[in-house]
């Protein structure tokens, strides 16, 4: 089973995909494959960002709750 890519690895690959799509001598078939891969990577990156945001929000809320109980 392949190791899941990190957010950073996916961003690097996405940048490479965009770079290849910018090339003028790319075939239609390859551009469609690259576009599909780009959409997939973009979606996965967005999911990872949302997960990270949720974790940060929970930590901030937890810290806020902890501080409130300290002041009571």
UniProtKB/TrEMBL annotation:
<keyword id="KW-0378">Hydrolase</keyword>
<dbReference type="GO" id="GO:0009318">
    <property type="term" value="C:exodeoxyribonuclease VII complex"/>
</dbReference>
<feature type="coiled-coil region">
    <location>
        <begin position="11"/>
        <end position="62"/>
    </location>
</feature>
<keyword id="KW-0175">Coiled coil</keyword>
<dbReference type="GO" id="GO:0005829">
    <property type="term" value="C:cytosol"/>
</dbReference>
<keyword id="KW-0540">Nuclease</keyword>
<comment type="function">
    <text>Bidirectionally degrades single-stranded DNA into large acid-insoluble oligonucleotides, which are then degraded further into small acid-soluble oligonucleotides.</text>
</comment>
<dbReference type="GO" id="GO:0006308">
    <property type="term" value="P:DNA catabolic process"/>
</dbReference>
<protein>
    <recommendedName>
        <fullName>Exodeoxyribonuclease 7 small subunit</fullName>
        <ecNumber>3.1.11.6</ecNumber>
    </recommendedName>
</protein>
<comment type="similarity">
    <text>Belongs to the XseB family.</text>
</comment>
<dbReference type="InterPro" id="IPR037004">
    <property type="entry name" value="Exonuc_VII_ssu_sf"/>
</dbReference>
<comment type="subunit">
    <text>Heterooligomer composed of large and small subunits.</text>
</comment>
<keyword id="KW-0269">Exonuclease</keyword>
<keyword id="KW-0963">Cytoplasm</keyword>
<dbReference type="Pfam" id="PF02609">
    <property type="entry name" value="Exonuc_VII_S"/>
</dbReference>
<dbReference type="InterPro" id="IPR003761">
    <property type="entry name" value="Exonuc_VII_S"/>
</dbReference>
<dbReference type="GO" id="GO:0008855">
    <property type="term" value="F:exodeoxyribonuclease VII activity"/>
</dbReference>
């Amino acid at each position: 089973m392949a190791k899941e890519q990190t957010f950073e690895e996916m961003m690097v690959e996405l940048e490479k995909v965009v770079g290849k799509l910018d090339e003028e001598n790319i075939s239609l078939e390859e551009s469609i494959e690259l576009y599909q891969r780009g959409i997939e990577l973009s979606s996965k990156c967005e999911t990872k960002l949302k997960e990270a945001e949720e974790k940060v929000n929970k930590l901030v809320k937890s810290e806020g709750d902890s501080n409130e109980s300290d002041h009571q």
